[in-house]
Amino acid sequence: MPVLTLPLGFLAAIGRAFLGLLQATGSLTIFGAHALMHVTVPPFYPGELMRQLMRIGYFSLPVVGMTALFTGGALALQIYAGGSRFNAEAVVPSIVAIGMVRELGPVLSGLMVAGRVGASIAAELGSMRVTEQIDALVTLSTNPMKYLVVPRVVAATLAMPVLTGIGDTIGVMGGYLVGTSRLGINPSNYIQNTVNYLTAGDITSSLVKGAVFGFIIALVGCYQGYHSARGAQGVAQATRNAVVTGSILILAANYLLTEVFFSA
Amino acid sequence: MSAPADPTPKIALHAVAKAFGPKVVLRGVDLEVARGESLVIIGGSGTGKSVTLKCIIGLVSPDGGRIEVDGAPLDRRRREDFLRHFGMLFQGGALFDSLTVWENVAFRYLRGAEKLPRRKARDLAVEKLRRVGLTADVADQYPAELSGGMQKRVGLARAIATDPSVIFFDEPTTGLDPIMADVINDLIREIVVEMGATAMTITHDMTSVRKIADKVAMLHDGIIQWTGPVGEIDTTDNPYVHQFVNGLPDGPIESLR
After folding, report:
1. For labelling alongside A257, which of A63, A102, A182, B10 has CA 20 to 30 A away?
2. What is the number of domains present in chain A?
3. Is the pTM of this model over 0.80?
């Protein structure tokens, strides 16, 4: 039946891809559950946690800050240009604040950190897998989940809300700088509008999103690196998958969290 | 009259089997290593030598069979205890890039149950580095700054750092020049005898075998084809050992050309 071969082959390919997706989802979920279980069971490695907090949190500040600053400025210009069609230029401060804090701050911080930290974690753990350093940990009575995965996941989950908060603030400041210097908005009016329109719920949602994105970034990076295939190509693939999967999961989680926080 | 030696083997494998998907690697490995004995497993590439060691350590779960240490099955709890008195030299060294040489050697002393003050841990690491022929000035270097031979020595120092009762050596001389390989072989032999440790080594380097081994096991086609004292590897009529030891192209071991 040659006529049937093509559609059947096509369906089989879709089926294989779907089963592969289910398998990967299950495997990542089990890996995440193991990581969470080890968070509460000693031994703990506070030195490793501090080192990861520095690497993931402190050293990501310039990337997150620059991204937020330019995005806030561009957002102010866009809202001013769009708002002027309806004589609504006055909404610039409030929309910049809400846009940055609710959506762009956490999402852009998440995506930038996924590129910087997720890739770095996957490459590091992948190299350790390939060179048997992870096996060596086991022979030294050290559980790799506790020593490698837990400090990274905890550090990213703690550091990302702080990075997000700083990113939100710098983004709003970018809008303020452009709004007051280029668009002629009164500085005190700008600040007043920003403060009036932002609620505690907006800020909470932003920080919660940051924590969830941090968890996703580190978990996916660790998972990909930990299960890296042998050779340079295996490490490269793990790194690529960490960034792509991490970014997609961040965007999906962002939608779900927005539904939870803001759906009427 | 001296007390009779303990007849219970330190490590025993009974019908250990392992397959990766359709590829059957171990079909039923039976092996015993006496306390204080140095066993070398020989065999071609891809015959399951590393998998055998990994099954004992717990890095690979066997599909069947039984592994015993001191006569008792090696369950999860006993494996943790076994690993506390265990050291391993990896083929590529497997040194941690992010740690200095002394931090690698003193890894167990810097964290966990055996944690010591850093100064004390460093002193112990330097002492072990000296034991493997390295001077204190390499202690603060990173592994990437060392030659292959020095990395092997550091790996050896890390393996013996806590005076383990069992040591595994995975291809200890691979990638080394003959002179450095000889130095490493001598070191391994000296250290194993001096510490009275039980050693398992996997290698295809026959010079290593002759220097390190008390007993040799030939692994091929997923089972142990022969075991015997190292002095018998040249005289045995086992066709696998004869072909392997003499590097012959013809025999029961298939060679791809």
Report:
1. A63
2. 1
3. yes
